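My current task is to audit a protein record that another person submitted. Thanks in advance; the entry in question is below:
***
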Amino acid sequence: MDETGARRWWLRIALAGITGAVMAPVGTGAMVAGLFVGTAGLAAMGLLAGVLFVVLLAFVARVAPDESWFGGGGGGRVCWAVLVAGAGTALWLLGWSVSDAARLGLSESAVLWAPMTALLFALVAGTLLRRWYLALGSLAALTVAGLVLLRALAVTLPSDVERRAGGVDLDSLLVASVPGYAVVPDQLSWQLVPLDVDPRTSPPSPYVQLYPVQDEPDCQVDQYQTTYPSGPSCEVERPGLFFVQGPDSNAYVLRVDGRRLVLVAPKAFDRAVLRDALLGARATEPAGSFTATVPAYTATSVSPQGTVFTPDDRRLLPGARRIEFSTRTAFDGQCTYGALECVVESPSVRYERFEDVHAVVRAVDGREVTVLGGLAVGRDVLRTAALAAHRPSDDELRDMLPAERASGPDRSPLGLAREVARTLFG
């Protein structure tokens, strides 16, 4: 190896870097322009840019040919040019995508990306130098640059909590633990139920319902109709009047003027009271509707399809023992419209009661957290929860949020880079 070659290896890789810094963006721009013509235009412009890139690098390969493993022959120079152009362009495109995903801002100014592009192609050319320590140094520099990009990408990757949040603003959430209550899982808001309640199952309905249906022989019941209790056993008290028992509810059925009236009640409802209520059923408005007198219940919905009776004791309603947290980004201190009662307990805390629920509202850091509970939840419990409201920890969010949606792996280069970044840097 002559002394001139020893002095010119740096010129070889510098010229390769400059050529790459010019041709990589020019070639990419030409291919984008070719897209307006169609697939044929894209292929033609890509081929033209690739050939020009290789030709220019083949001329660069004439500099210090003895410094390359491929030598100074025509075939060797072309092979070297193809490797530098291909590997350099692939790494350039991947690095561009990763830096943008990592929000480094390199692509926003030519002052930043042009020298970075030149350095990249110079290092790729450096890995093909004959001197092992120069080639190894170039490879090490490329590896370090790649790890730096992956580390920056890892910082921007969403955590498992953020991926499960589904777009919910986690910074706006306020939560609190309540003794004797557990978090309802798979939710996008903080909800609590008593420990003796399974949030995954629906509690028995507390409502009494009266249905007019088509008449059939006594105890002939279609178990697939929601009108009747499921899985019933039947007892005929007299022709035209029978009692149906189900696992969660019971019903009396009465034949009236060629039709059936079915009165369904919760399992714990007194049978004699249910029977007397059905025997006193009567027609009402609108036409085709029926009603009855059900002790401790009030008809809240009447139609020809059926009448619904709601317990007068609102503590029996679904959700009466449930607690829910919600947050507003501003605190105005005003009572909520429609509240039956509003008590300002302090400048930052007020109590509100509605027909079926009540709440304690508290100002926290310029926001308003509302702790809403059914009427079976004590007012002091709501107040304690509101005063303890705080930003949730990651563990609390994991208890609350739905499981991450299963999705197919992202096999794109950027997707694979994200997986590598997550594996290496968490």
